[in-house]
Design brief:
- By secondary structure, the chain is mainly alpha-helical.
- It has twelve helices and no strands.
- It has two domains: about 100 residues, RNA polymerase sigma factor, region 2, helix turn helix motif (Rna Polymerase Sigma Factor, Chain: A); about 150 residues, Butyryl-CoA Dehydrogenase, subunit A, domain 3, CATH 1.20.140.
- The N and C termini lie far apart (about 40 Å).
């Protein structure tokens, strides 16, 4: 959190705000000012990755993402630069992870089985399934199920990508995709506007439908930017349990996004 204090964003830092494109001097200033954000994002991402994934590789791709954000940012679009840069950086890091193909096929298969279990129980119960119910459905003891969640948690780093990619977007998170559409004039036709509006709406609905514990965890992790250890202290759970709640939430959101993409 300390590093974020180095990258406070405000309109006044953009001297030519409202112009079509920022000048080179401003671009250089933004790269220097927001460089600490790269390490911050890489550090949070690395917590959910296998130990063999290099932090240096994430940071290198993040630098490319920041430079790309600075070059493509259009202040006349009335978008907060820090928000735009953050999603560009994350998108570049996710691109790097996908290029490494770092998730074993056996783990991908297990994630598919878990996702299907959550989806089937959601349909039959008419509500989000509890972990105990999913474990019983999969004929597993609850501790075995939690172990399975821990084993597959790294997939949740890009859990929304498969469904989102089928809907025709670019790399990055759903919000990054929406920002990209706003920034890219060539993509701003009415059909895409409707598509991205629907995509954003379905994800907001999916988050709202999460169990209260998972909804709170999502809010604290993604909006308040707390660590899982800090969230555990607030919610009274271990860091491992918070990680499991995160993985469960990602499975639910991934299924909703898959349903949406198949219906588009």
């Amino acid at each position: 959190m300390e590093e974020l204090s180095l990258v406070q964003d405000n309109r006044e830092s953009i001297p030519e705000y409202g112009a079509a494109k920022p000048d080179p001097k401003w671009q250089e200033q933004m790269v220097l000012q927001y460089a600490p954000l790269i390490k911050y994002i890489a550090s949070r991402l690395a917590l959910r990755l296998p130990s063999h994934i290099s932090m240096e590789d994430l940071i290198s791709s993040g630098i490319i993402g920041l430079i790309d954000a600075v070059q493509k940012f259009d202040p006349s679009k009335n978008i907060n630069f820090k928000t735009y840069a953050e999603f560009r950086i994350k998108g570049a890091m996710l691109d790097e992870l996908r290029s490494l193909d770092w998730i074993p096929r056996s783990v991908r298969k297990k994630t598919h089985l878990i996702e299907e279990a959550y989806a089937k129980l959601q349909r039959s119960l008419g509500r989000p399934a509890e972990a105990e119910e999913v474990a019983e459905f999969m004929d597993l003891e609850i501790e075995e199920f939690y172990k399975l969640l821990d084993e597959t948690k790294t997939v949740s780093v890009v859990a929304l990508e498969e469904g989102r990619k089928k809907s025709g977007g670019h790399a990055g998170y759903m919000e990054h995709e929406v920002l990209e559409t706003i920034q890219d004039d060539s993509a701003r036709d009415s059909l895409l506007a409707v598509h991205f509006s629907g995509l954003q709406g379905i994800m907001l609905e999916a988050i709202e439908a999460l169990p209260d514990k998972e909804k709170l965890m999502i809010s604290l992790y993604y909006y308040e930017e707390l660590t899982m250890k800090e969230i555990g202290q607030i919610m009274g759970y271990t860091e491992s349990r918070i990680s499991q709640l995160h993985t469960q939430a990602m499975y639910r959101l991934k299924h909703k996004l898959r349903e949406y993409s198949q219906g588009v």
